[in-house]
Structure formats: C-alpha cells, structure tokens
Amino acid sequence: MGKKRPICFFGPLPPPVHGMAKANAEMIAALARERPIAILNISAAGLTRNARYHLVKLGRISGAYLRLLWARSRHARLLYASVDDGLGGWWTALTALIARLMGMRIYLHHHSFRYIVKRSHAHAVLAWCAGRDAVHIVLCPQMAARLTETYPLIGLSRIVPNSVDERPPAAGSSHRTGPLRIGMLANLTFAKGLDTFVELAEAAWAQDIAVEAVLAGPIPIAAEREATEAAVERSGGGLTWLGPVSGAEKEAFFAEIDLLILPTRYPTEAYPLVLLEALVRGVGTIAHERGCIGALTVHPEAIAIPVDADFIALALPLLMKMAAMPTSARAAKRKTIQTAAIALNATNAQARETLVRDLIALA
To answer: Are strands 284-289 and 259-262 parallel, antiparallel or unpaired?
Structure first.
C-alpha cells in the first residue's frame, strides 16, 4: 500500500490562543489520526495588530501557498480551510481559488458571524472562488440559513456544532462555602463584555447580593487593563483578575465559580467554546444571544439574553436567586448541569467525528 495522500489545512493555530485557533487544532488532531496533514498555518505573532503582527502573518501566508503547491504535487486532493472573518477573507478566497484550479475538493469551516450579519466583498469573492461544489461547514442551523441568504452562490452547507475534548473532573457532591461566585474567561475586552461584567458585579453589590467576581484571561488593550485594575481596587476584594489561565489554573477557575458570564457584543461571536467548557464542568452560563449562542439554550442552564435587552437588568434576578441557594443545592445543581452538558457535548462531538470520517474517505 502506498503512502496516504495528505489533507491540506489552511488557517490559524495556537499560539495565540483564541476560539477559532483552538477549534482548528482539535480538528487537525482528529484528522491526523488517519492522514498526514499539510499544515498551512497562518497565525500571526499575537493578538495585537502591530507591524510585527502583519509581517509574521504575511510571511506565513506566503509560505502556506508554497506548501499548498507542494502538497498537491504529492497528490493531495482535499483542502480544509478555516475562514478568516476579516481582511484575511481575501487570503482564504485566493487559497480556495488555487485549490479549485488544481481540482481539489474544498471544505470551508465558518467560525464567525461578522461577514454573515454584514455582507463582505471578500467573502462574496470567496463564495465565487470556492464554487458551488464547495462544502461550507457551519455551527448551527441559524448560521446555515443566514450564510446562504447573504451569499446565494453558496450551494452546500453542513452543520457541525463545536465540541470540547477536555475530560473535566466530575462535579463533586460538595462545593465550597461562601458567596455566589461569578466568573468570566476570555480574551478580556470591552467588546467581549468586560465592562458589562464589572457593572453587573457592582450592581449586585449595590443591591446587597452576596457575590464575588473573578476575571480570567489576558487584557490586551492598555486602556481596558487600566480600567479593570481600577475596578479591582475599588471593589475592596470583591473583584479579582487572575490573568491568563490554562491547565490546572483553568480547572481551578471553573471549580471555584458558580456561574460563567459572557455578555459579549463581539461582532465575530459564533459558538464560544468557553460556554461549553463551563457547562461540562457543571457551571451554568449566562451570555448575550449572539451568533449560535442561542443553540446552546437546549441546555436549561445555558441562558441567552437577547442583544437588544438590558443584560444587567435580566441577569441580576438570576444572580439573586442563585445566591440565595444553600451550598448543598448548588452542589447538586452542578452535578445535574454536568451530566446533561456531557450528553450535549457528545452529540456535538459525534457530528464532528462523522465529518472527520467523511473527509478522510474523500482525501
């Protein structure tokens, strides 16, 4: 038996760590179990868009095209690409065009709503370059409907919700004592709802709701970091910023919070992995209903608040109700949440595994 044909992957991988890069890494790991992967990694030097960011990005994109040609010369016939939601959509379009001209099958994985809620010239060109036979992988039925409505040239779509690969510890029968603890884990920016999270905590304190608030993740913008440090100082210990967390620190963060809050207004938001990560650890979630977040509401402890509603006004009664629960009731709730969330994640993971098997068969 000859060597197996490689599958070409085009898109960003960690570092830096963000939702799309993490989802890409998990997909590559699944594909690599059966096929060699020609990795066309276009990650930049970080999250800050400075001169170094653009130079590294340009260098990696140039190298990616050379590697795509090399892989095709080794009989690769399938391109799996993660669609960039900004100006990088032009690079994705060019990649799809090159692959199409070389007779390759094209699968395009969409992780963002930015170019769906507002039509983008780059992504209209991408739909044309990829052709009607390209398969567009989306995260929920709403995303599929809106994508084809915005770009009528798209012919085929396939729904594969996000899933997480972690094996979290079982939710224990007991839990810490003390006030209700809310948390937020993200690349912390105002667009992700950093300011709303702080305002929610302060509104809870103003109503004498016993709440502690914990922020986890980097704050890449200096002005937002200064505003957060000022909020931490005036909170008198009620608000804590842990900085970036991973591994054991991340597990400790989830173990010590009762609710994950994500009041995001981020235009690229689609199906945030952090919400599923929280649920499979027994932590309920409250988030703004953007992108595919509403699809998570099949889980009763994943609460989505409409983007045009007052997030704080609707979230406060939920915090008040949970803060009044005894410790034993919170612990029981965690176990119930985790059991249901693991089942939901397994369904999502099965959809991805089916996609992986199909890609391997076609490659």
So the answer is: parallel
